[in-house]
Write a structure and sequence with these properties.
The chain has 143 residues and is of the alpha+beta class. It contains four helices and nine strands. The protein has helices at residues 8-13, 30-37, 78-91, 120-142, and strands at residues 2-6, 14-26, 41-42, 47-51, 54-58, 61-62, 72-75, 94-102, 108-117.
């Protein structure tokens, strides 16, 4: 699979459950396919919701379109949708898209995870740890 777009912010804002990874097709218009293949897309602030036994992606921005923030249906099997539905209800999880990829047959797919959102203090602690690690690397480099 060839990576088109990666959502780096998802790993910082959410605790992604690595066991709960799904790959789905997206229902797109013709011009949207062309623009996604040209990498004129962003899933930075996007999220997915379960509505009437279908999963939709919201706030996926595709440039040069008059209605950039319409909802798009994700194409999944009923068995997968039911599995996601159970886990969302039981564990209060979110559905977060992380990557848009092209498979070997040139179909556009989206990878998403079930995730739990992080609190502000968790994000702050993560930043502290990373800055300390960077400081230690610089200190070891110069000594």
């Amino acid at each position: 699979m060839k990576l088109i777009i990666n959502n780096k912010k998802a790993g910082f804002d959410y605790n992604l459950l690595k066991k709960e990874k799904f790959i789905a097709g997206i229902e797109l218009l013709g011009i949207e396919v062309k623009l996604i293949k040209q990498k004129k897309v962003s899933i930075k602030n996007s999220y997915c919701k379960l509505i009437n036994n279908n999963i939709y992606i919201f706030d996926m921005y595709i440039s040069n379109i008059s209605t950039p923030k319409r909802r798009r249906k994700l194409l999944l099997k009923k068995k997968e949708i039911n599995q996601i539905k159970k886990q969302i209800k039981n564990l209060n999880l979110n559905i977060i898209p992380t990557e848009i990829v092209l498979n070997n047959r040139n179909f556009i797919k989206i990878k998403f995870f079930l995730a739990k959102s992080k609190k502000k203090y968790e994000k702050r602690n993560l930043r502290k740890i990373k800055s300390l690690e960077n400081f230690k690397k610089l200190y070891n480099y110069y000594t």
